[in-house]
Each structure stands twice: as C-alpha cells, then as structure tokens.
Amino acid sequence: MNLYKLSLVTLSLFAITACSTKKIKKEVDNNITTHPLITSSTYSNHNPVAITNTSSTYRPIGTTFSGLNGDFANNYKLINFINYMHNYHQFSEESLYEIFSQAQDINQMVEPCKVTNSSGDCVTKIRKGKWDRYKGMFVYERNIQRGLAFWQEHEDTLNQAYQRYGVPPEYIVGIIGIETAYGVNFGKKKVIDVLTSKAMLGDRREKFYTKQLEKFLIMTRQANLNANQLMGSNAGAMGYGQFIASSYLQFAVDFNNDGVTDLWNAQDAIGSVANYFSKNGWKRSISQVAVRAKYKGNRFKRLKTGYKTKYSQYKLRKKYKITPRTKLRYTGRVSLIKLPRASYDELWFGTHNFRVITTYNHSTFYGMAVFELGEAVRKRRYGY
C-alpha cells in the first residue's frame, strides 16, 4: 500500500515538472512572437557599431558574454538588455558590447552647474512661479538675434514646413530657440552615457529609460549614426528640437530628402518639429495661439488656470468679466493662462494650438515662452 502511494506521488511530481517545463517554453515562444525580429537585410551598409547580426542564434536572457568592460562591466541588467537586443532586434552582440564598454556612468561625473539657460550658461536657480525669471532664460536679445539669423538662413525650409504641415515658422523657430538656442547647446553629455546610467543603475524612471535606450540604438542604426558620439541633454534628448529616441522614431522626418533623418540637421529638425505638431493636432485654420486678457484687480485667483483648463468664452465674459485685450478670432473653448509677475498677474487666453504646443513640454510657462520667443523674432523680422 505504501509502495502504491509512493508511486502515485512520483508520477504526480513528473506531471508537475512536465507542465512547468511546457509553460516556461510557451512564455519564451510568446516573447519571441511579440517582438518581431528585424532581418539582417533590412539595414545594410550601416554604421558598424550597430550593425545587424546575421546569426539567428537565440541567447536566453541571463546568459553572460565575455567582453563587457568599463563602468558597466558585469552589470547583469545590461547583459540581459544586450541579449534582448540581440534576440529581438538582431543586433550584433559584439557591437553592443563594444558600445557599452565605452559608456560612462554619469553619476561619477562632476556637475559644475545645476541650472543653465538655453545657451548653456550657468544661471541662478529659478524660483517657482516667477514668470519673469523663467522667460528671461529664453527670451532675451541675443537669442532673438540668433532666431533672426536662423529664420533668414532657413526661410525656404520653414516655408515648406508651413505649406506641408500648416505650422507657422515663428512657432518652429520658438521651439528650436528654447530647446537649443538654435544649435548653440545640443547638450553636454553623451546620450549613450545618460540612457545607460539611468536605465541600468536604479533610476526611479528605469523602465522609461530602458525603453529609450532600446529606441536610441534602433534610431542610430536607421540613421547610420555612431551611438558613442551623439551628444544630448541630461535626459537624453537630441538635436535642434531635443527629441527623445521614441519621439525620433515616431515623428522625425527626412525633410531634405537626403536619405537620412538627422535631427542635428536644421532642415530635418524643422520638418520634424512641424510634423510633431501636426500629428499632435495642430489646426491650420486657427491663426492665433494666445491673446492677452483683462480682468479686474492685480492678482488673479477666481478660477483655475493652466494649459489643461478649458472655458467657454461667453461664460468668462458674462459671469467673470474676463475679456480679450485685442480681437480674438478663435471661437472655441480657451485655456486660462496666468503668468505671475512682480506686482501683478498677466492673464492670457490660450487656443487649441496653444495646448498643442504644451504637448511638447507639459508646462504652461514653456508654452508661453515658445509663443513669446517666436512672436518676438517674427515682429523683429517683419515689424508687426
């Protein structure tokens, strides 16, 4: 009887083991099918630091591969990531180990300045809620002059972007001026260093940066760019318009038709910013972005403000006596934008296209800085 029970237990254990093995294999197979491989023929004659691997060998996650040196040597997360890029995107393991062996831990680098303006100059830390201080970092005479020169040099490209996407030149000029001061400051850190450090060393947004690292490697392969040489911001943003890697893959365009989508090329950057706005809902038919409003008093506290707000113009006028200072041709619901100044609050109506600008950076101040810099350059160029 005991022998019979023992046999049943043994058979049960075998059954459980078989089921577990089958389940694990199914999970691996599912992972393969949900991450389509890019074949080696897709990208030929591209940068050797990110060439595809003609081998179809599948390397299980967790498998080590000798050759990872430098600041990230023996980092198990990075080894797993390399295996993933090899398995699901057909990257050469040797190329990836070469790339990551050159990457540096940004946490070990000296940070001489915490806050810089758009030219990269060190400035005093901004006090939250002070519009004058924020605006002063971007809308200043030297930057306006840079904007004029940029517009003059790339007038044809800006006009082409307007014709294709419906985005007026001044708002593209505003974005590029705020992001990089028209190419003066593309960023002071290597993108590979930033993304690898934040993805592999326990940053609170580790998952986000791991995804950006994946997209970055795919991006450099597509554009035939050297992954170890590209400079960007402290968050890994790149080029004139400071796109992150996922935005590059979704919105960047080869606007000069030279076969390469290069965000460090002004023509491609102009087209890419315009395409970004277009795909995020920019409406050609809306000619105004923001119009100054008037209200009673010096400080505005009656209603919630910010780019997310939407109010009926009729209700604002009838119930709250808030009206535009100049003609507002837009008839839709408006955002109420408050800009705190030294002795009073400026109040603005933001149209639908203002809210589109804030998709680039989710900040009311940012949207208004883009608007004001673009308007300042346009007025200096045309006199109105």
Protein described:
With 384 residues, the chain is mainly alpha-helical. The chain has a domain at 290-350. The chain contains 14 helices and 6 strands. The protein has helices spanning 2-34, 76-89, 93-102, 131-136, 141-153, 155-165, 169-180, 191-200, 206-223, 245-251, 266-279, 313-320, 352-357, 364-382, and strands spanning 189-190, 231-232, 290-294, 323-324, 335-340, 345-350. A 4-stranded antiparallel sheet has the order 4-3-6-5, sandwiched between helices. It has a two-stranded antiparallel sheet with strand order 1-2. Strand 5 (335-340) and strand 6 form a beta hairpin. Helix 5 (141-153) crosses helix 14, helix 9 packs across helix 10 and helix 10 packs across helix 11 (266-279). It is elongated and about 70 Å long. The chain starts with a helix and ends with a helix. Mean pLDDT is 84; it is low at 1-56.
Features:
single chain; 384 residues; mainly alpha; four-stranded antiparallel beta sheet; two-stranded antiparallel sheet; 6 strands; disordered N terminus
